[in-house]
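Inverse folding, one chain.
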C-alpha cells in the first residue's frame, strides 16, 4: 500500500481490510500452532496483532540486497517498530537488486535511505536508521529488541552479533546466587533470525541463545573465504586475476601510497589498484582483470541475485512472525535453498556443539609440540577450523603471554613470541584466550605437550 493517494488516512486504510491476510493467520487455531496458542478475538482485544504492531521491536542488521527485502517484508507483515543498522553507503552497482535505492541516492548511507523509503511508502511504519558499525552500539541497545533479523554478508559480523546476544542471556534467580546449574531465563533470550545469500544459494536459520545451536556451533560448515588466498601465492606464483588484484592491494598500495587508506567507493583508488594488477597480470600472462572485478575483490563483494534475496527474506520474516505470535512453531533450525540447477530446498535440525567456544559446556583441549614457539602456537590457533580466531591474546594463570591490542602490553610480551612454549607454561596448563571474533568470550584451552614419539622424534 503506497502513499500516492494522500487523502486516504491510516484509519481508513485499516478499515478497508488492510490486514485481512494477517488476521486469517492470527484469528485461527490449527495443527501447526504452538501448544497453548490463543487466537485473536474481539474478547482479547486482538492481542497478537496489537503486539506485533505496537510492542514488538525488531532490529534488522544490514540494509543491502537481503536487508532491503527484509525491511519491506517486515513492514508489509504488520511490524511497525523497526530499527535498521548498516555501515555502508550506496554504490551505483547496488541499484540492480537493492530496490529501495535510486540513482539520486548514490553516496548516501544505506540505512537512512532504506528507512526513508519504507516510512514514506508504508503508512504507520516507523523505521529508525543507524549509520554505523554494529560494534558501535552498546549492550543496552541490543537488549531493547524482541527479535533480531540479520541480513549480513560477513561471517565476522554474524559471529559478533551471536556472541553479543548470547551475553545478554541471564540465569533464573535461585536461592543460591552461585548455582551454575540454574536454568537460563528464557525471558532474556532475544531470537536471532539469520539469513544469507550467495548467487543462487541461500540459507536461513533460527538461533535461540542457550537453547539451540548458536552460530559458532556450526562455523565449521562454512566454506573458506574464496578471496582469502595464501600470501605466498599472491607474492610469488599468481594464477588468477584475483591474485593480481590482491597483490596490488596488499603490496603495491602500501609501497607507493603508504599511510593512505584504501576506499573501495573511491573510483580513483580502484582504478589505481586495477592498473597495478594489470601490470602484474601481464607479467604472468593472466587475463581477466577489469574494474568490476577489482572493486569486487577490494570491497569483498559477494555476488547476489534479487530472486534469491526475496526467497530468503520471506523465510526470515516468516520466522519472525512465528516467533512473535506463536501461530506456528519456529524453524528447527536451518533451511537451505539451492536454485543454481532447478530449485531445491531442505530443512536440517542441527545439534549444539558441546565444544563450542561460545555456548558449549565441555572444555577445549589441544595437544601440541612443546618445542614450537609462542608465535607458532598462535598461528596454530588461527588456523584451527574449530576456533577460527583472527588475533588471539593469550594468558596463563594471570600471566600475560601475548597481548596485541594494548600497545604497552604488546611491547612487553613481544619477546615471548620467539620463545618455545615449554619455557612459558607447563604441560596441562589452561590458557585463557580472547579474540575479536568472539567478543565477550573468554576461551579456556588446556594445552598438553606431545611426547617425543608423537612428535615423530
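Residues assigned per position:
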Amino acid at each position: 500500500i503506497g502513499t500516492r493517494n494522500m487523502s486516504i488516512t491510516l484509519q481508513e486504510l485499516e478499515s478497508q481490510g488492510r490486514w485481512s491476510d494477517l488476521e486469517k493467520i492470527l484469528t485461527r487455531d490449527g495443527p501447526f500452532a504452538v501448544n497453548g496458542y490463543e487466537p485473536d478475538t474481539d474478547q482479547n482485544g486482538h492481542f497478537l496483532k496489537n503486539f506485533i504492531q505496537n510492542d514488538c521491536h525488531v532490529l534488522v542488521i544490514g540494509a543491502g540486497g537481503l536487508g532491503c527485502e527484509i525491511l519491506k517484508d517486515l513492514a508489509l507483515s504488520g511490524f511497525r517498530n523497526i530499527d535498521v543498522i548498516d555501515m555502508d553507503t550506496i554504490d551505483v552497482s547496488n541499484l540492480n537488486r537493492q530496490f529501495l535505492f535510486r540513482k539520486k541516492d548514490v553516496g548516501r548511507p544505506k540505512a537512512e535511505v532504506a528507512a526513508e523509503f519504507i516510512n514514506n511508502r508504508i503508512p504507520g511504519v516507523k523505521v529508525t536508521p543507524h549509520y554505523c558499525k554494529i560494534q558501535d552500539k552498546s549492550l543496552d541497545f541490543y537488549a531493547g529488541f524482541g527479535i533480531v533479523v540479520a541480513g549480513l554478508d560477513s561471517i565476522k559480523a554474524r559471529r559478533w552479533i551471536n556472541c553479543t546476544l548470547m551475553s545478554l542471556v541471564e540465569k533464573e534467580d535461585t536461592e543460591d546466587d552461585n548455582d551454575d546449574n540454574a536454568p537460563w531465563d528464557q525471558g532474556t533470550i532475544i531470537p536471532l533470525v539469520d539469513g544469507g545469500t550467495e548467487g543462487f544459494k541461500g540459507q536461513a536459520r533460527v538461533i535461540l541463545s542457550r537453547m539451540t545451536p548458536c552460530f559458532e556451533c556450526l562455523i565449521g560448515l562454512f566454506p573458506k573465504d574464496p578471496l582469502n588466498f595464501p600470501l605466498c601465492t599472491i607474492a610469488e606464483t599468481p594464477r588468477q586475476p584475483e591474485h593480481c588484484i590482491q597483490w596490488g592491494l596488499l603490496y603495491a598500495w602500501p609501497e607507493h601510497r603508504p599511510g593512505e587508506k584504501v576506499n573501495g567507493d573511491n573510483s580513483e583508488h580502484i582504478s589505481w589498484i586495477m592498473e597495478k594488477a594489470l601490470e602484474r597480470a601481464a607479467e604472468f600472462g593472466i587475463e581477466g582483470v577489469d574494474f568490476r572485478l577489482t572493486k569486487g575483490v577490494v570491497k569483498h563483494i559477494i555476488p547476489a541475485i534479487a530472486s534469491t534475496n526475496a526467497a530468503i527474506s520471506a523465510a526470515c520474516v516468516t520466522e519472525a512472525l512465528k516467533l512473535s505470535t506463536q501461530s506456528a512453531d519456529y524453524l528447527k533450525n536451518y533451511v537451505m535453498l539451492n536454485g543454481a540447477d532447478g530449485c531445491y530446498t531442505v530443512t536440517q535440525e542441527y545439534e549444539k556443539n558441546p565444544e563450542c567456544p561460545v555456548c558449549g559446556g565441555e572444555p577445549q583441549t589441544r595437544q601440541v609440540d612443546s618445542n614450537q614457539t609462542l608465535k607458532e602456537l598462535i598461528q596454530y590457533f588461527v588456523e584451527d577450523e574449530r576456533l577460527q580466531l583472527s588475533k588471539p591474546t593469550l594468558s596463563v594463570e594471570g600471566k600475560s603471554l601475548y597481548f596485541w591490542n594494548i600497545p604497552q602490553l604488546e611491547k612487553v610480551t613481544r619477546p615471548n613470541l620467539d620463545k618455545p612454549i615449554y619455557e612459558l607454561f607447563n604441560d596441562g596448563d589452561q590458557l585463557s584466550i580472547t579474540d575479536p571474533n568472539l567478543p565477550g568470550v573468554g576461551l579456556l584451552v588446556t594445552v598438553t605437550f606431545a611426547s617425543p614419539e608423537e612428535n615423530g622424534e
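The mean pLDDT is 86. The first strand starts at residue 57 and ends at 61.
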